[in-house]
Amino acid sequence: MQTIRIPQRTTKEIKTFISQAVYEAMHDPDFGHALTESAKKRLKQAFQKKQRAVSSLEIKRK
Description:
Elements: H1 11-26, H2 37-48, H3 56-61
């Protein structure tokens, strides 16, 4: 997840960021499904290691 600092961003950038996040969520085939316990565990580990999250759009581009 990206960290944004509102004072350093323009309104257009904020709208673009929000639009992209909504688009990604709505076009995710797993949106609305519950996470498995193993997925929750992997997410916790990733956040503890402070790994950079990769958006689905970045994955699709590769």
